[in-house]
Specification:
five-stranded parallel sheet; Cobalt-precorrin-4 Transmethylase, domain 1; Methyltransferase, Cobalt-precorrin-4 Transmethylase, Domain 2; about 25% strand; 2 domains; about 250 residues; alpha/beta
Amino acid sequence: MTPRLSVIGIGPGDPTQVTVEAIEAMNAVDVFFVVTKGSGKQELVDLRFEILRRYVRDPAGYRTVEIRDPDRDRTPTEYRATVAAWRTARADAWEAALREHLRDGSHGAFLAWGDPALYDSTLDVLADVRARGEVAFDQHVIPGISSVQILAARHGITLNRIGGAIEITPARRLADGLPTGAEDIVVMLNAGTAFTAIAEPGVHIYWGAYLGTPDELLIDGPLAEVAAEIERVRAEAKARKGWMFDTYLLRRAR
């Protein structure tokens, strides 16, 4: 029997934001594949294990397999080529783990941060593995709460305004300014402080870091007035924790 492989969205960090559907799925899993990123981000791995301890009813009914994530250059000169090489290395590691540990008739799972469909590479890497034809599995995806939803909830706002659209973009695409015609821009994958380069007047920022965790940080206000404060708070938090996950909404004045 072809094994089953679930990709389960677990939210951005708060175990109470894991959905009932995700909990039921986790309780049907035999083996969880946990991607590790080194000691600097061990906290993220620990959160996954905490979620399993909290919600899986039979702790003896599953096992975990850790997969070491390949190193990646975060400031490449050739962005697409670098990401493609990293994706290939990732697919190699995942394929090897699935071949060894996902047996016929079993049910495996990856726990994906936030929602698997929003700026998460799990589904893309698994698609690469399946395309190679060496490992077969039936895939099932369970959505999760994203950092974007938490950002809006914490600031008490809607992401869209009446008759308006939302654009979601990685921070690196802000190098040339805000997207033309977009009124509300959600920025993710923020490796730096791209917002400090936005000189356009009348822009409001709703910023959040470590959303859904005890270390959550929130700042909002006119971008020109709070950019320096966000930059300082962000730098201090990153130095303290060793890693940074932040998301923000840039809102043009109407």
